[in-house]
Automatic annotation (TrEMBL):
InterPro entries reported in the protein's UniProt record: BphY/WalK/GraS-like, HATPase_C_sf, HATPase_dom, His_kinase_dom, HisK_dim/P_dom, HisK_dim/P_sf, Sig_transdc_His_kin-like_C
Enzyme class name: transferase
EC number: 2.7.13.3
Catalysed reaction, written as an equation: ATP + protein L-histidine = ADP + protein N-phospho-L-histidine
Phylogenetic classification of the source organism: Bacteria, Pseudomonadati, Pseudomonadota, Alphaproteobacteria, Rhodobacterales
PANTHER family: SENSOR HISTIDINE KINASE GLRK, TWO-COMPONENT HISTIDINE KINASE
Name the record gives this protein: histidine kinase
Segments passing through the bilayer: 9-30, 159-178
PROSITE patterns: HIS_KIN (PS50109)
Superkingdom: Bacteria
Coiled-coil stretches noted in the UniProt entry, renumbered to this chain: 216-243
UniProt-listed Pfam families: HATPase_c
Domain Histidine kinase as annotated: residue spans: 249-459
Keywords linked to the UniProt accession: ATP-binding, Coiled coil, Kinase, Membrane, Nucleotide-binding, Phosphoprotein, Transferase, Transmembrane, Transmembrane helix, Two-component regulatory system
Length: 465
């Protein structure tokens, strides 16, 4: 119970009420002491006036009785500028201090009250007050504090019991209120969250805001929005997963069919018929693009790429191999593919995966230049700094349109070429992120486009932070 929210509220309520009672107790005990002394002074005045009314002819035993009833040891009355000892008896000891009740400082009264409350030994004090109802100019009395101390202790015990009763009652009501208004709604919210977690794809389990407490209702509304979005996202992912599995199966079978058709197309090129020789290369090229599309779809549809087999490779040799392989696809007179790197520079990467990445960037640049019908250049360079290695792939093409920039690296959305799928950059980025790096579009415009590939030295790095 003590670890629950309502239990902690109960403990805090008791503590706070007791603190409040302590803060109230000090001025209360001071007020009690003043009232006690004022009462004694009023009794002393009555006793003095009774004696003065008999022309000071009173039996000693009656005088003692008057002092006992008044609760004082002697009475001095000041009238007409004269101080007169009206009633007196033997003092048990010397006067320890004087207490002036006329315009007393509240802080002084509270201090004296607490000192008297904790003191155990009685003492004689001299009390000065103004007489009630004009019974003189000033009245003084000697009082034994033994009775005062006892009365203050009894008063303090009563205050303590009252504080405990108030604390218990307040705490119980606060406990019930907190449990009803906060704890129970929170428990209900937790139960609903657990129920939703059992089947998050079930839209019927999304919470419906019902709380009347503004803060809890706001929490329920936010939770409803999150659960709704999560349910929709899970449904969409499930549909995409099913679609992906279907596409993968179709692509796999289609690739086999297209591969066979490509082999047949290659044989057609050996036929001497002029029409066949003119048409056969176009058929082969179309079949090759179809095979590449199915292979790209299968690669992207896999659950995950194999982790990179990192090794140190020569940057110059690697760029030479990639650029020469891509140059075979187009005459150098149309698109010239060049590279530049320090012969001593080495890169740490998976050579096969990096070949796919750089080759894809070069292929995209080549296709963009060829689409313009003009000649162009593609340059690939490699450099090293303290954080890692950077490969730049720059072209003199027409630049990327706004739609392509907005959907860059998003599968099936970032393609510029008609009939393209946009898988190339998405796969390339996934491969580089597996190295701990990233790909970024550095610049694009009518003068050309530049892509940067960053490979960190320490494994997973903060690329393009």
């Amino acid at each position: 119970m003590l670890t629950s929210l309502s239990g902690r509220f109960l403990i805090l309520a008791v503590i706070f009420v007791m603190i409040a009672e302590v803060m109230i107790f000090v001025p209360s005990i001071a007020r009690f002491r003043v009232d006690y002394l004022t009462n004694r002074m009023e009794r002393a005045q009555i006793a003095a006036l009774a004696l003065l009314g008999t022309d000071e002819m009173i039996d000693p035993e009656v005088e003692v009785e008057l002092l006992e009833n008044a609760g004082v040891l002697n009475v001095v009355l000041r009238r007409d500028a004269l101080r007169q000892l009206v009633l007196s008896s033997d003092l048990p000891g010397p006067v320890a201090k004087t207490v002036d009740l006329r315009d007393a400082d509240p802080l002084v009264l509270m201090r004296d009250a607490m000192l008297r409350f904790v003191a155990t030994e009685p003492e004689v004090i001299r009390v000065i007050a103004e007489p009630a109802r004009g019974g003189g100019m000033q009245i003084e009395a000697a009082i034994d504090t033994g009775g005062l101390h006892k009365a203050m202790i009894e008063y303090g015990i009563n205050i303590l019991w009252l504080s405990l009763v108030i604390s218990v009652i307040t705490s119980v009501f606060l406990f019930l209120a907190v449990r009803r208004l906060m704890v129970m709604p929170i428990k209900s919210l937790v139960r609903q969250m657990n129920r939703y977690a059992e089947a998050p794809e079930d839209g019927r389990r999304v919470i419906e805001p019902r709380s009347r407490v503004a803060e809890l209702r706001e929490a329920e509304t936010t939770l409803q929005s999150l659960e709704t979005q999560l349910t929709q996202s899970l449904r969409q992912k499930e549909r995409l997963a099913q679609l992906g599995r279907a596409v993968a199966k179709i692509s796999h079978d289609l690739r086999n069919i297209l591969t066979t058709a490509t082999l047949l197309g290659d044989r057609l090129e050996m036929v001497d018929d002029p029409t066949v020789k003119r048409v056969a290369p176009k058929i082969v090229n179309s079949l090759t693009r179809a095979v590449n599309l199915t292979e790209g779809t299968l690669a992207f549809g896999r659950a995950e790429e194999a982790p990179p087999a990192l090794q140190y490779i020569s940057a110059g040799e690697f760029l030479t191999e990639v650029c020469e392989a891509e140059q075979l696809s187009v005459p150098a007179e149309e698109v010239a593919i060049t590279h530049q790197a320090d012969p001593r520079l080495t890169l740490r990467a998976d050579p096969e995966q990096l070949h796919r990445v750089v080759g894809n960037l070069i292929r995209n640049a080549r296709q963009a230049i060829q689409a313009t019908g003009r000649t162009g250049q593609i340059s690939v360079s490699a450099a090293e700094d303290e954080t890692g290695w950077t490969l730049h792939v720059a072209d003199t093409g027409p630049g990327l349109p706004k739609r392509a920039q907005d959907n860059l690296f998003q599968a099936f959305q970032g393609s510029v070429r008609k009939g393209g799928t946009g898988l190339g950059l998405a796969i390339a980025r996934e491969l580089i992120q597996g190295h701990g790096g990233d790909i970024a579009l550095q610049s694009t415009g009518p003068e050309g486009t530049v892509f940067c590939v960053h490979l960190p030295k320490g494994g997973v790095g903060d690329a393009f932070a």
